[in-house]
Design goal:
Helices cover about 75% and strands about 0% of the residues. By secondary structure, it is an all-alpha fold. The mean pLDDT is about 95. The termini are far apart.
Length: about 160
């Protein structure tokens, strides 16, 4: 693996992760009704840290493969969608818009994994834990909307 590329992709992932630091769940989210299978709060930063490392390694491995342009474009797209979700959901409290973003994120991660798999199966496989976590996060987003219909309106604030 090219460690300089890995560091560059990890830095890009850190920028996306910064939105999660800037737009934390906070008091609003704490008071929403959530399903019993909601992961504990401590798990989110631990899992996201691992996922950012894995997705950066996947990008570093895929980027040097011939024909990687589509996969890398998809990787950039998923990173942008990743960065957008926290401000939409936690910042603006737009739970339904957050669900749209996270569904688009799921599609982008799945497409990235597939494109990377075609380039180098290991690179695609490194994206699969991320896809699994986004699946859980999307289901949680949907469950929170279902349990808090009054809080999920398309309004500012």
């Amino acid at each position: 693996m090219d460690w300089t590329l890995f560091a560059a992709y990890l830095a890009a992932a850190a920028v996306a992760a910064a939105t999660g630091v800037m737009f934390k769940p906070g008091n609003w989210y704490a008071h929403l009704e959530k399903p019993g299978w909601t992961p504990p709060n401590w798990m989110f930063p631990a899992v996201w840290t691992l996922l950012y490392v894995l997705m950066s390694a996947a990008a570093a491995l895929a980027a040097v493969q011939q024909g990687s342009a589509l996969g890398m474009a998809l990787w950039c797209l998923q990173l942008v969608l990743n960065a957008v979700w926290s401000p939409v959901f936690f910042g603006l409290h737009h739970m339904r818009a957050g669900l749209v973003v996270i569904c688009l994120l799921w599609l982008a991660v799945a497409a990235t994994a597939a494109a990377f798999w075609q380039l180098l199966p290991l690179a695609g496989a490194l994206m699969l834990p991320y896809l699994a976590w986004v699946t859980v996060a999307a289901a949680l987003n949907r469950a929170v909307i279902a349990r808090n219909p009054q809080a999920g309106a398309w309004k500012l604030g």
